[in-house]
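Q: Could you fold this chain for me?
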Amino acid sequence: MAITAKMVSELRQATSCGMMDCKKALNECDGDMDKAVDYLRTKGMASASKKEGRATANGLVESYIHPGGQVGVLLEVACETDFVARTDEFKAFCHSIAMHIAAAVPSGLVRDDIDGALIEKEAEIYRGQMKEEGKPDNIIDKIVEGKLDKFYSEVCLMEQKYVKDPDMTIEDLVNSFIGSLGENMAIKRFVRYQIG
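A: Sure. Below is the predicted structure, expressed as structure tokens.
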């Protein structure tokens, strides 16, 4: 299949990847847009893992106040260079993450940030539910483990489904952005405020 400039442009707009990367992805995937997106996401993750150890000493603190002034977010996102931190793409990325935090209400960045007492309470509730349903004791722990994984995916920012694209998690989004950015970056911390 012949790859047109329009196809490359559409893929670039959908993924924020470079033109040459988009063209290569479309060639590799015989023009299939969905497969090309998956291809670029995979390549972005591979690229992200190569950059993982590099220091992120620059970045931005992004603020977002939801219309109406009832919800606000402060977010710190780090990157390797001040040059990248000042780009419109980086600023837009930070703004999108801040908006996601306002909408999705994560409790922490990663699993270690979630209060252990809350996790234990959830596990006890799940165990109680399984016993009420008459599940055998030998499988209750496996079921509880699965339910806790689902719980983490709802309360940990990096595991949440991205509100603008539920097919990817925030971690997938970060890795994809690292691939297109060409340098390491990381979400460091956030605070979400809400009236009431």
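A (continued): Confidence is low (pLDDT under 50) at residues 45-51.
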